[in-house]
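Example record

One chain of 309 residues, shown exactly as stored in the release files.
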Amino acid sequence: MKNILLILTSSIFFVSACNPLTNKKEDNNSSLSILAIVAGSGSAVTEIPFQLVVGSETSYECNKLVAGHSEKHISESSNFYLKDARLYVHDVKLVKADGTTTDFTLSNDGVWQNGTVALLDFENATGDCVGGTTATNTSLKGFGTAGNYIGVEFKVGVPTALNNLTATSASAPLNSTAMYWSWTSGYKFLKLEWKTTDGVGATGTFHLGGVTCTGSGVTSNLSCSLPNIPTVRVTTTGAVTWSPTAKPVYLDVKALVNGTNTNVAAGGASLTCMSGNATAACKKLLNNVGVNEADGKTLTTQSAFYLKP
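Predicted structure tokens for this chain:
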């Protein structure tokens, strides 16, 4: 029986390995289903939920005011509204207590995931999020072998080799024109936009993406002197076993915009950061999401993501 399982697993790996990075990976879902049977039902990790939060406000969404003082100030504002919140994720791994990892293989649903990259979309086109999409996606689907895990690791962004594809011709989820930088021929890895209504009001825009890149995607070697693709690792406190369904990954908007001020009534102003790493407006935002503004590489710390306590 062990030999049969070994042969079956090896065969699945061989088929998957033959697919190039840009393939649609039509066989991905069937492979994952077979792997789930091999690993045993009910014990594998098949979904990793994410949740958009704003400090202590854990049910945040478009068209919802975050008002208050002290601990609830967001970008120094007590009148904060979301306009957009989306990000690409890839290279997902489950973290063990000893620090080692196990791959979480993304499935291919033809909409939000292509087997390599996933798009998380928290906006729903209501209120100030008008112009977005009514459909949302707040979890990663795929397969991770059964085991005791304390957290998850993932990269925010699009793999460099795919970053120069064209949104108008690429397959989902890389066909989102709202997540494409037409002016620099690459994708917005993370897109956060907001407005504040203190005083005359102001807006904030943070678009994370690779800059100063050369090459043309999959047709030649692409490289970016500032890749801006942070590796994020979030784990439980005290190495307690992690249950993905009980403890989703939080993306905290308050923590992400910490250090900015878009409250005009408090001396602030509208803010725009489009991965201009050298600008003062970008430094705090990049650091908060785990990017070193000097070289575009991953910092040892980040504050925007954490597991639900």
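Notes: The first helix runs from residue 2 to 17.
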